[in-house]
Write a structure and sequence with these properties.
homodimer; alpha/beta; FAD/NAD(P)-binding domain; 3 domains; seven-stranded mixed sheet; four-stranded parallel sheet; globular
Chain lengths: 589, 589
């Protein structure tokens, strides 16, 4: 009887408090879930390092070279995590003392995930490493490559002031400061729009969204004013803009209806896109699915719509091909159209004669052009891939081993791998032409008369490769690229001494010997576009497209596994669980 | 063999990633733990209400009376949670749309608990209730009791403006706006000090603490400047100040040593207390333990130290009995000395002729003196306990049933319970005198000649009770008092109609009939003072004192159980677990 009444009470508790049952279900499976979400080799610290450090300590330690790293975004963090060569003394300089897992920023705007959960303090990373790393919270304001110095400004306001500006010496400088929003000189954007680049942008948006609903719930407004306040405009139909619109729609349909029932009908979400489609970097199937879903959800997608200006009350747009612009009142605007260089990078580009560029140009080894000891990676840099046509004579000379002045297919075949490594566009060109064999490519240039034993002179060789360079593409400004670049550079630094002695890169075509390292090669792992309602579009390598709830689960597991630490992983996963059980937090803090 | 290698890898994973093993241990026990932490009946929503609402709906529903509640602190939240009478239409007005679990504010300052975890949005509470409740995010700026109106100012900044000020009508007004910090007119406090009353105060302190350590780690400072920046001063040795000092010390000794190893030796914590002891509202055993522990921890406790002024760089103090004041440079000051009335309350007190008071005076039923339909509770109010001596003639008359002009012990005994309910100081006085029987008290007044059958005249009766009123004490301004007052008032409102018909309170001494309700009686449940290092001092009813690690566990379980919702309970507990596994977050966001 006692047992019975205990179970009776227990089961009643479940009925009375539905959250309770959810908590128990979730906490029961969470132990296993956390592990399943995680890739086993994501952690770079641990015993390996310590053993390594011990081994080095017993050798004679040469004077450590000073590496200065600017910025701890994806590129900088990835470099720090992968670096394990104790022969360097690393000084990190960044005005922000934490790394942000940027792909989850849109999730922060409406409370699906907490700001703190997607942030990892740089000192947490540093204190686990056996490499000598220190950190200064400051902003680099000038790079002086001649004297191998950078100048930093102290940005922390306390009641005790030190010197305002201080200098830091370097042997190697790694520039990974990222980019800033690009307003395309549209008037009023800085004054009236929200952005979504940093954690505090996301926090401000969240506060603003909640405050808009609170304001609209007040008795001192007309219905017209309520509609204005609850008109949310997103400018830019890229992944960020689309995800924010989807998050906001989910928030309205899942939480606002319960929390702000009186004002839910005044909400309107508008998405403005200047080109013909949203998500235009994705496959067409994804684009049209997304446009269809947003249509059904009541999100007003306006394609071909250019923003001409934003005042504090209205946003002016112009439809493509129409010279008149129309103005619409709004409550909040998110501007997410693209990126431009930061002032430091603009200034540095001017200094080194790259003044007209949109990002710092580097070679394929991520070195800033013209400097052997300055690297640039992530959104602040682009790789200036060397053109085949510029080096065509040298390639011909290197390939023509018998110095006959003509090239046989066999001779070219022998150096083809080296050429493809140094000039990846050759391989892309062959793929795009669906040419399997280099002989076919050369034959085509030679014309119908070509035979197996043909020989090409320099002019014919040029003709064969003349369109190769059209295949060169800039890498997208994504977290994935920056992450891979950081890891690549760390590996180079880890093996610096070894590769000085035994270079492992491709042979130099314009000189003797080989390059120290293999050039950086980007490996595209796929891309997600969350569309709301627990549906995500995924475009994976090999033209594989998946849309729907299953991709959402893929999204959850990939984003959980890609977290930089066990700490943020646990926090992000528990935020998802919390939202599933309790809904979003509407406190506006 | 395969199995073996799986387990081998698994156990290696545990050794390599100590956090992983902690996560698994914690998630395994968390399911049970959460339930154990929680008292079963803490949730007020659920089936009971719905059944009640159904029953009422089938009767004829009278026009709902409008209740306006100002503030959602402990008192307001407790009122809302306990109210379940659907005959009221409640309008909540507060400039802050969430409740804060204030006892955990010191935990937020150094990242033991997240700000969001101790906050419950008022709309989450409202949407679960079956009572008609709405909320406006606005600040009440004026109370107009004659016209039964309050005036509110819209405090939300958006790009669309409505009317600045709007009025709200009420039938009943409940004032629970809390208090603000009291600077005792010390110059420079508002400009240079931190406070710890609100969630954003705690967030600011947290940011400031982290930024101080970042600043001190920069290369552009002298050691002298580093010492200044890392000198943390706490003014006020009450529970808040003491707990903050303890949290800060824990943060330094547990996390700073790892994260900021270069600056850890520059840290200094000073605690200034104007009286002779810290925690002087606690038992002496606790006070001396706390002072001893702080001494061992290296926290500089300065007793009898008055702050005379604070500039942006230095804090000036004066030792008791010494006329000279000394100045010390500081990096950060927390001011936590006491509370004073908010401007709204000051203004209202002037209006109703209570201008000289420090808080709104109410009667024992929490009604503002002179108003039948305005209630005040929590930190903005004090109960003006009616004195026995003021009513002594009426009490005598009521007791003297045979109108003989004298009172027998038996006669007084008959109304003693009613007297004690109306004038609780009588009971306290008897306890303090260790008098068990009222006869003894009366005998004492009568002198040695007293007998069992004695009779007292009015003068002798006065003499017997003359010192009773010295036992009157104001209730402390704590969360516990406010919480009980809110619950009490909700119960009154829940039974309003019933008690109008059948009053349940004590008989009126100065008039006929009975009071509608029992007067409010505070039940002290004990008090905690966390002292850092997982040690807490607990003072429980019945003079029971406990200090140490076991009290810390009591603290954890009490604070987890007292959370206002399952959501915050889960969040707070998971924050504690997170800190245990991963340490504090040093990102400063």
């Amino acid at each position: 009887m006692r047992n019975f009444s205990f179970f009776g009470r227990f089961s009643r508790a479940f009925q009375d408090y539905p959250s309770l049952s959810k908590i128990i279900v979730v906490s029961t499976i969470s132990g296993g879930g956390l592990i399943a979400y995680t890739e086993a080799n994501s952690y770079n610290g641990g015993r390996g390092h310590i053993a390594h450090a011990d081994a080095v300590a017993s050798e004679v330690v040469p004077k450590k070279k000073k590496v200065v790293l600017l910025g701890i975004g994806w590129a900088g963090m990835s470099f720090l995590k992968n670096l394990n060569n104790p022969n360097y003394e690393v000084q990190v300089v960044s005005p922000r003392n934490f790394f942000v897992f940027t792909p989850l920023l849109p999730s922060v705007t409406c409370g699906k995930v907490e700001a703190r959960s997607i942030v990892e303090p740089v000192r947490n990373i540093i204190c686990k490493k056996s490499v000598d790393i220190s950190y200064s919270e400051a902003e680099c304001i000038k790079i002086d490559p001649e004297n191998k110095k950078i100048y930093c400004r102290d940005v922390i306001n306390t009641n005790v002031k030190g010197e305002d500006v201080f200098a830091v010496d370097y042997d190697y400088l790694i520039v990974a400061v990222g980019a800033q929003v690009n307003t395309f000189n549209t008037p009023g954007v800085y004054e009236n729009c929200h952005f979504l680049k940093e954690v505090d942008d996301a926090q401000k948006i969240r506060k603003n969204v909640i405050q808009s609903f609170e304001k609209a719930s007040l008795p001192n407004l007309t219905d017209e004013e309520r509609k204005k306040i609850l008109h949310f405009v997103v400018v830019g139909g890229g992944p960020t803009g689309v995800e924010f619109a989807a998050e906001l729609h989910d928030f309205v349909s899942e939480d606002v209806v319960k929390l702000y029932p009186k004002v839910k009908d005044y909400v309107k979400i508008t998405l403005l896109e200047a080109t013909d489609h949203i998500l235009n970097m994705f496959d067409k199937r994804i684009t049209s699915f997304a446009e269809g879903k947003f249509g059904r959800d009541g999100i007003d997608v306006k394609l071909g719509s250019m923003v001409t200006g934003i005042s504090d009350k209205e946003i002016s747009t112009k439809v493509k091909g129409d010279s008149n612009s129309t103005s619409t009142p709004y409550g909040m605007v998110l501007w997410s159209t693209g990126i431009g260089p930061r002032p430091l990078i603009k200034e540095f580009m001017k200094q080194i004669g790259q003044g007209n560029r949109r990002a710092l140009a580097t070679d394929e080894w991520l070195r800033v052009e013209g400097f052997n000891n300055i690297y640039a990676l992530g959104d602040c840099a682009t790789i200036n891939q060397r053109k085949v046509m510029e080096d065509i004579a040298d390639i011909f000379k290197k390939a023509d081993k018998d110095k006959s002045g003509t090239l046989t297919v066999k001779e070219f075949q022998e150096i083809l791998n080296d050429v493809c490594e140094r000039y990846p566009q050759v391989e892309l060109y062959m793929k795009s032409k669906q040419v399997r064999n280099i002989a076919d490519l050369l034959k085509e240039a030679k014309g119908d008369s070509a035979k197996e034993s043909m020989e090409l002179n320099i002019e014919e060789f040029k003709k064969a490769l003349t369109e190769v360079d059209t295949q060169m593409k800039n890498l997208p400004a994504t977290a994935q690229v920056a992450n891979q670049q950081g890891a690549y550079l760390a590996k180079c630094f880890n093996r610096m001494e070894e590769c000085e002695r035994n270079p492992e890169g491709p042979p130099r075509f314009r000189a003797e010997g080989r390059h120290r390292f293999h050039p950086f090669r980007y490996r595209h792992l796929g891309q997600f576009a969350p569309l709301g309602g627990e549906q995500t579009a995924a475009q994976l390598p090999g033209d594989w497209v998946s849309i729907g709830h299953s991709s959402q689960w893929l999204w959850y597991s990939v984003y959980a596994s890609k977290q930089v630490s066990w700490r943020t992983r646990a926090l992000v996963v528990s935020d998802w669980i919390r939202r599933f059980i309790f809904g979003r937090d509407a406190s506006g803090i």
